[in-house]
Amino acid sequence: MEKKRKIRQIxxxxxxxxxxxxxxxxxxxxSEIIKSVGDDAAVFDSSKECTLVTTDLLVEGxxxxxxxxxxxxxxxxxVAVNLSDIYAMNATPKYITVSLAISSKFSVEAIEDxxxxxxxxxxxxxxxxxGGDTTSSLSGLFINITAIGSAPKDDIVYRKGASKNDLIxxxxxxxxxxxxxxxxxxxxxxxxxxxxxxxxxDGYEYIIERQLKPEPRRDIINSxxxxxxxxxxxxxxxxxxxxxxxxxCKHSDLGCKVFEEKIPIHPQSVLASEMFRIDxxxxxxxxxxxxxxLFTVPISKKEEIEKIKDVTIIGYMCKKDEGKYFIPRNGQExxxxxxxxxxxx
Amino acid sequence: MEKKRKIRQIxxxxxxxxxxxxxxxxxxxxSEIIKSVGDDAAVFDSSKECTLVTTDLLVEGxxxxxxxxxxxxxxxxxVAVNLSDIYAMNATPKYITVSLAISSKFSVEAIEDxxxxxxxxxxxxxxxxxGGDTTSSLSGLFINITAIGSAPKDDIVYRKGASKNDLIxxxxxxxxxxxxxxxxxxxxxxxxxxxxxxxxxDGYEYIIERQLKPEPRRDIINSxxxxxxxxxxxxxxxxxxxxxxxxxCKHSDLGCKVFEEKIPIHPQSVLASEMFRIDxxxxxxxxxxxxxxLFTVPISKKEEIEKIKDVTIIGYMCKKDEGKYFIPRNGQExxxxxxxxxxxx
Lengths: 345, 345
Known about the structure:
Two copies of one chain form a homodimer. By secondary structure, chain A is an alpha+beta fold.
């Protein structure tokens, strides 16, 4: 017989009780920590390197839908998207703080599931949870994570720094997360219209996972380090390739040319694009949430870059007055425009 | 003729437009900043001191009510409560990140007001806004601020560290913020029941301000430093004196005795307590949001402490088995219990 999990109201534990409960099994991974959870502030020894800070707020109904986002995946993703920002600076994430606003519909066990995902991501990427705030909301779940990382000053890579003729590279493949979301949305509608229908994701497991459980690309950062390559500029792809390319161009005061035929797209993304009757490069350009790395390297590093697994050269930087163009397989150059997701619309 | 302020929808600017608009006039105060707003993460040189991190999430309808909280005050308070946590570690706040989730009822101008308060607090306390996230919410306003500070390792004061016989000290006066809130709540009800009635706060300006615009006690931290006193333990009073005293006792593994007659209470708090027919020490013990500092010092520092403006000795730490007691003017010792506000009830 399956053992039933006891479900408790959060008010039974209270704020300090809930925090104690959720953080009781945290072991410290980074030896620089002097004081973690449990005082007015966390303290760490930062004397060896520069410190980096990034923060992201995920809102129920805006950034995620609990109908198809399991809470454990959601916790993992909330951490992952922040770590991705630290890796995109060529730095090492080390600490996070987690702020939660929870409506009364959540049980202690639901928040445990969320925390399980948060802790899993922390463990996988050697990151310590060092603080946070837990409070109630009148409706919905809000997750704000601040990630703190470190790096030697000269290792850090910014959005600015690219030079003319630098190669534009991307990790992994693009567009999958957006297409996964479209599939989830479609199945949600079918599920809600007829509760007898079970979602069908056969053959699309990869793009569903891209949406629900993105992986920050620590592996790419490590591969580049091992190959002795420091990117000249870098950003993570959260809003779609177009939007991120425009950021690199703007900050580096350059133009760019990217080639459709070079953009890495997963076979499942191609299939899903066909099913939704859209050009498969559209989700790559404008879809967002892939959390791959977009970076530039000097053309002298071409051979070394080509040897790195899961990195593709998709174009090159050019002078600003040469424009910012996407070159399709057939036809005219298209000016790049940021059509990524606008969270304020 | 009064010039009308143009009101714009946030969607007119978009996320990046809004962020650019709100952060365009930020000047950098801390020279350790290498990269502020505008990349995947902010970067600062942390090589000289330890780094401290704290975070707080304020939720509309739970932590604030826009009927009586002007947005500028709210922005100021959201920063202030975080800086208070850094000061409570005997450290210097240096940076903040600001995450906002905004419902569609807010205009660009409303968010400008909020940011004006945020920037005012930053300016007053020499803190730089180095990053954030701005997104939408389906309902209500959510403000998550992460404050980052620094201090030499040996200067940092924790909740643990007090010794038997250490004097318990408190800055400022207690209970005002809670009583200010009660007044605001009462006037809100009257205002809502009859729109002709204007709120009356004559004679209660101080406690209203205590609620709406608390001041983190940098001055006390500086006074203590000047007097050569390093507290043995410290915490800021956000949940009421009882709750915070119990934290110091728990972390320092001690008991305590505090005396009602010593607890500093402002004349306006005494008057308001009389009006609400409650004992004026109750808001001090259990009210919360005063953001004063509660700390312990060795008894050998008694004379120096007595010379510091706005600091009051209210009791002493004792052995754990002697208990944690509040000693009223007349009558029996009362065991201290945390009856502070529970955000999860």
